[in-house]
Design brief:
By secondary structure, the protein is mainly beta. The strands form 4 sheets. It has a 7-stranded mixed β-sheet, with no helix packed on it. The chain has a 6-stranded mixed β-sheet with strand order 4-6-14-8-12-11. The longest helix has 8 residues. The radius of gyration is 20 Å and the shape is globular.
Length: 274
Amino acid sequence: MRRFFALITAFALMGTGVAAAHQPVFLMDTDTTAAKGPLLVDGTVSFAIRAAFTKSGQKKAFRAQFKDGDALSVQYLIVDAKPENGLRMTALPSVVITGPKGTKPVTIKLNERTKFYEPYGGTNYLYLGRYSAPAVAGVYNFVITARGKAAITIGVGEKEIPGEVARGPVPMATPKPAASVTPSATPTPIQTAAPIVGYTMAQVKANNTAKSCWTAIDGFVYDLTSWISAHPGGSGAIMFLCGTDGSNAFKAQHEQQARPAVRLDSYKLGPLNK
């Protein structure tokens, strides 16, 4: 299976108590199982996994790799804005963590509402639950199941360094070749895709329908697909932005308004490459 890697620049998340650099990873609609979802190559590096759902029963998943004795640190967050902060805990997606070697699955308990300000995007969040434990060596699967329309963020890891994300098989260590008296044919080098940093305007233009609606605003790319039917001003206003640079349209409608900016940030995919 083809594999690609993404090196993502860290950004600061200042919380109550401990500062963390959560690098954003956005789960797509095709990430329905852990095997199909992205792999955090080092689960101790700080990542923010963002998942948005439109209806009950939808699943999105990802994986994280750990060494024996690593700290498994997971946080469950939502944007402190409507509609998420008005939903009951039982209406929010469940998150089940399954470790290697037949370890017992763990469901993250939602038992707090701690305010949290993220200065990079100027976004207010709520911590709803946390889980930590020593990890065993191997890959942990994280499966998120929707109970209705909602968007959440799962924080994984604590190291404030750039991290690596892969899709496809778990990267395996390359064994050292055995010494040989007779020369052998030079093996064909394994090729990996170039690092993916950000998105292009061509990608934005290709996602120009109600089934996949991307827009670019002030140097960032956003997936507004799930917001089309929920937009208070009607679906037409969002459809107008699909596949375009919507910077001027968004500023004309919402400049200096905090709530639309917070909502927009929850749909951010990453930076726009010039």
